[in-house]
Amino acid sequence: MKQLLFIALALCMSNLALAQYKTGDQARDFKLKNIDGKMVSMSKFKEAKGFIVVFTCNHCPWSQAYEQRIIELDKKYKDKGYPVIAINPNDPDLQPEDSFEEMKKRAKSKGYTFPYLVDDTQDVARDYGATRIPHVYVLNKEEGKMVVRYIGAIDDNTEFPDKVSKRFVEDAINDLIDGVYVRNGNTKAVGCTIKWKKS
Amino acid sequence: MRLWSLLFLCIIFTRVSVAQNVPIVNRGDLYALVGTNDDTLRVVNFWATWCGPCVAEMPHFEKLERNKGTQKLQVIFVSLDFASQLQKRVVPFVKKRKLQAQVLLFDGGDPNEWIDHVEPRWTGSIPATLFLYKGKRIFYEGPLTEQELLSYVNQIKQLP
């Protein structure tokens, strides 16, 4: 019996270590500080049908390459019920360009149209299972719950927006809006490592 | 697999796109590299010039390459910088740091199409390192300390 308990515990712990959302999982809400100093939670967006949650930051060249496209995603899909929420999980001690003050400056100079939140405990990034930046999670509200329907890249060409042939995030949201199964729920992309706090 | 070593030398020395000894390689080249199974221990490190943790761990890899002596060992830095940055950033970086290890710039297009072929466990963040030896492989995603790097080198030698 003791052995069984031990195995069960070990299993739980290994699950904890691997905790990472997959498509179909329910995504948890969060309460994080926005660049305007106010706390933001998904539950405050009463009208939202879902969200485009983007783990991103200031300094990463891949994030910068996608910055304008993230703004365009928000403009395009906010009115359709899927606004962007950007979350910066980087430890500013390790990456000073990603500090709260720098986030404010960046959002202002680039004209962010969406909340840009700081995940200072890194718990949200960890719970979602984000590993790189930018890392996108498309969530869809289903029976009152936020369900992960897409995880991955924004599109298939980081460097040249005009040469993009596959718009992964747009395709996923269009499928959701059409009420059909998201055909491509997972993609991989190259990105900056999240700067995890040294424990 | 002597053949691959030869091929690799060919890539390095004869490719048209050679620039300051940082060749641009394509998917086929990279798949060939990560598919080697000969008795040379290869340490393939994925990095980019602007990636802080990548640049921070590079000296350990360089040291490994410089101190290899007669060991059959090769460190290969695979840059994921944009190909358009080859002359602007990658070549000056390699020159400035006087890198001894082979540096390649991988121009692979949509990562979603090649990451799994390189390593299915790779989520796509860098640095990431592949250890290849006699058909065995160890993959590590994230920055390595010198000690960790050396311990993986020993580990792959000892793997059955």
Would you give an account of this structure?
The complex is a heterodimer of chains A (199) and B (160). Chain A has helices spanning 2-18, 61-77, 100-110, 123-128, 168-178; strands at 32-34, 39-40, 50-55, 84-88, 116-118, 132-133, 135-142, 145-152, 191-193. Chain A has 199 residues and is an alpha+beta fold. Chain A has a single domain (23-193), classed as Glutaredoxin, CATH 3.40.30.10. A seven-stranded mixed β-sheet of chain A has the order 2-1-5-4-3-7-8, with helices on one face. In chain A, strand 1 and strand 2 (39-40) form a beta hairpin. The two termini of chain A are 34 Å apart. Residues 11-18 of chain A have low confidence and may be disordered. Chain B is α/β, with parallel strands linked by helices. Chain B has a single domain (18-158), classed as Glutaredoxin (3-Layer(aba) Sandwich), CATH 3.40.30.10. Chain B has helices at residues 2-14, 27-34, 52-66, 86-96, 111-118, 146-158, and strands spanning 24-25, 41-47, 73-79, 102-106, 125-126, 128-133, 136-141. Chain B has a six-stranded mixed β-sheet. Chain B starts with a helix and ends with a helix. Classes of the chains: A alpha+beta (199), B alpha/beta (160). The A-B interface holds A 61, 94-95, 131-133, 152-153, 156-159, 166, 168, 187-195 and B 48, 50-53, 80, 82, 84, 109-113, 115-116, 122-127, 141-143.
